[in-house]
Design goal:
With about 325 residues, this protein is mostly helical. About 55% of the residues lie in helices and about 5% in strands. Helix 4 runs parallel beside helix 13, helix 7 crosses helix 8 and helix 9 packs antiparallel against helix 12.
């Protein structure tokens, strides 16, 4: 029996993925490749909805791809590719844009949030329509399930609406994807501001732990991480957001429950707890950093892996687009 297909993507908008990316997505993607027909892409087309320096985008796309392999994605067990290497993504986006209402596109919450921060005049048309590109990413591969967090649920609903609308208007063409709710991971917050989510666009450098970060830097950041009044190590989102965040990180990386950690570190004080947490983080990221650096040192091997993934992706995408063109009434090329 064929396995259900999942698809997800990550933007190459930084020089390293961070701890929140790893726990919230990458680690779970690695697990999914054993039970699903998994497609994962570096979504460089999404990245250009905001200004990018070409050389930086090119470098970060390679670093992102190398980190996916470094984190444990296996090209023999899943399909890893760069979005722009599969031109069917942009072709399908245009076709879907032509059946998307202006009103439903304008209701996308993330566009409202991002354009409000930068100002409507600074927001690009690409930022406005990128949920349709996201829908094309998913529908192109006849995706059964999409790993999503709560912040992407609205975009998946748009994807489902567009799939059903196209199928109704032109005949059965797309699988209608369902959400795959990722295993619950406590929200990882900023080390410097534990009331805010850890994120490249919102956190200070001190507030983020990067996957590829030097161990000495990781140790400094965790040592300086904001804690709370008192010295007892217990989870309390309201009274002790700093130590609660560190407990969640420790628990997520080791599998030990927060309650067990509270008991183990009762009376130990923040210094001992932070020192142990530092070694947990450094140990978790060391093999990923080593594999990523090895991958980046061999451009030809990385290019081969990405070409292999793109070829596999284009097989599926090409078959979908042949059907889409026929359904919509385009003349077939001879």
């Amino acid at each position: 029996m064929s396995r259900a297909r999942v698809l997800s993507g990550i933007q190459p908008t930084a020089d390293s993925f961070h701890l929140g990316n790893y726990l919230g997505a990458l680690r779970q993607w690695v697990a999914l490749q054993d039970s699903y027909d998994a497609f994962y892409c570096v979504v460089d087309l999404h990245a250009i909805t905001v200004p990018q320096e070409p050389a930086v985008l090119r470098r970060r796309s390679r670093v992102a791809a190398a980190q996916l392999f470094g984190a444990g994605l296996d090209p023999d067990r899943c399909t890893v590719f760069v979005q722009s290497h599969v031109p069917e993504h942009t072709e399908l986006t245009w076709m879907l844009e032509c059946i998307t209402g202006f009103g439903e596109a304008s209701r996308m919450v993330q566009f409202k949030d991002k354009s409000a921060r930068a100002g409507a005049d600074a927001a690009s048309v690409g930022l406005f329509t990128y949920p349709v590109l996201q829908a094309a990413d998913i529908l192109l591969y006849q995706t059964d399930q999409v790993p999503v967090g709560e912040d992407q649920r609205q975009h998946l609903e748009l994807t489902r609406d567009l799939a059903q609308r196209f199928n109704h208007r032109f005949g059965p063409t797309f699988a209608v994807p369902r959400p795959y709710i990722l295993a619950e991971v406590a929200k990882i917050t900023d080390l410097d501001n534990p009331t805010a989510k850890m994120g490249k666009s919102t956190s200070s450098p001190q507030g983020i732990v990067d996957v590829l970060e030097d161990p000495a830097s990781i140790r400094r950041k965790i040592a300086r991480a904001v804690t709370d009044s008192g010295s007892d190590i217990r989870a309390d989102d309201e009274a002790k957001p700093g130590i609660t965040n560190l407990l969640h990180i420790y628990s997520a990386l080791t599998g030990e429950s927060v309650a067990s950690l509270e008991q183990r570190y009762a009376g130990a004080g923040y210094g001992t707890f932070k020192k142990d947490l530092t070694e947990v983080v450094v140990s978790a990221f060391a093999p990923i950093r080593e594999r990523t650096e090895k991958m980046l040192a061999d451009d030809e091997q990385l290019d081969r892996l990405l070409a292999h993934g793109a070829a596999r992706a284009r097989e599926v995408a090409g078959a979908t687009m042949a059907t889409v063109r026929d359904r919509m009434g385009f003349l077939l090329a001879t």
